[in-house]
């Protein structure tokens, strides 16, 4: 692996030029804000020409360092919020306990691994998959009050916990954030997909974006990192930190 450098910002990041960052250093750099406030961050990757995926998946845009940061963000989170389509396309599995973050999680009063929370209106999911049959902690299903009763029943029979966070078939983003916080899951991480991220942005509940800018171009008509409803006035974010390695920029932006 080639050198990795950090560029100092107003947030005052520590440089690690000439070597790979350790997981502890990455965990410090990406630590959630102190205090008891609920904090929702997103982790996404984008090509230079704005694609959030290639052939329906984000992996072709990623790198080894991107995956280290991906793992670090998971290691810090109480809950990982993800859309059903992303679960299907990316082959989601349960989050695993990692020894590198065990002491840090124990000190923060966290369990050994984050909860996975799947946002879905239809509950069109394969409940025989390991995400539902083998998690360290039960997988959550975030859905609306009008969700199909037979699918809700199937989810519960598979061991998932169904959380109603909307009056209709779909989920209200702000209610989803609040419902997770009520369960003590205040350090929240969403990994998309684009439609779910767009809903969080439109609802004004996204606090931070961790965006890896991949030194690739895809052309085509791939989705951006956020889709769905637009906002009347663009939401402003301020840069918190920037890391660079092998041409990738690993950025953090916080909502102003």
Q: Summarize the amount of helix as a percent range.
A: 25-40%
User: β content, as a range?
Assistant: 15-25%
The overall pLDDT, averaged over residues, is 90
Unreliable stretches (pLDDT < 50, length at least 5) are: 7-15
- The CATH C-level class name: Alpha Beta
Order of helices and strands: EHEHEHHEHEHEHEHEEE
CATH architecture: 3-Layer(aba) Sandwich
CATH homologous superfamily classification: Dihydrofolate Reductase, subunit A
Number of domains: 1
Strand segment count: 10
Radius of gyration: 18 Å
> What separation lies between the terminal Cα atoms?
35 Å
Keywords:
ten-stranded mixed beta sheet, alpha/beta, 5-amino-6-(5-phosphoribosylamino)uracil reductase activity, Bacterial bifunctional deaminase-reductase C-terminal domain-containing protein, Dihydrofolate Reductase, subunit A, 8 helices, 23% strand, 256 residues
């Amino acid at each position: 692996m080639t050198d990795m450098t950090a560029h100092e910002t107003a947030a005052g990041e520590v440089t690690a030029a000439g070597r790979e960052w350790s997981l502890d250093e990455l965990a410090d750099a990406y630590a959630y804000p102190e205090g008891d406030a609920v904090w929702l961050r997103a982790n996404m990757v984008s090509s230079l020409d704005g694609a959030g995926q290639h052939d329906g998946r984000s992996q072709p845009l990623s790198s080894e360092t991107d995956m280290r940061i991906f793992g670090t963000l998971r290691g810090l989170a109480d809950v990982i919020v993800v859309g059903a389509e992303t679960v299907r396309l990316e082959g989601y599995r349960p989050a695993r306990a990692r020894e590198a973050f065990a002491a840090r999680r124990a000190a923060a009063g966290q369990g050994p691994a984050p909860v996975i929370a799947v946002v879905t209106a239809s509950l069109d999911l394969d409940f025989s998959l390991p995400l539902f049959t083998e998690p360290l902690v039960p997988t959550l299903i975030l859905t609306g009050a009008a969700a199909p009763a037979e699918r809700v029943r199937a989810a519960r029979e598979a061991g998932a916990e169904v959380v109603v966070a909307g009056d209709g078939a779909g989920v209200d983003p702000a209610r989803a954030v609040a419902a997770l916080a009520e369960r003590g899951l205040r350090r929240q991480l969403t990994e998309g997909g684009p439609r779910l991220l767009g809903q969080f942005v439109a609802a004004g509940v996204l606090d931070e974006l961790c965006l890896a800018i991949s030194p690739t171009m895809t052309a085509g008509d791939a989705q951006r990192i956020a889709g769905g409803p637009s906002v009347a006035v663009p939401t402003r974010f301020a840069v918190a930190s920037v890391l660079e390695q092998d041409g990738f920029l690993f950025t953090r932006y916080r909502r102003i």
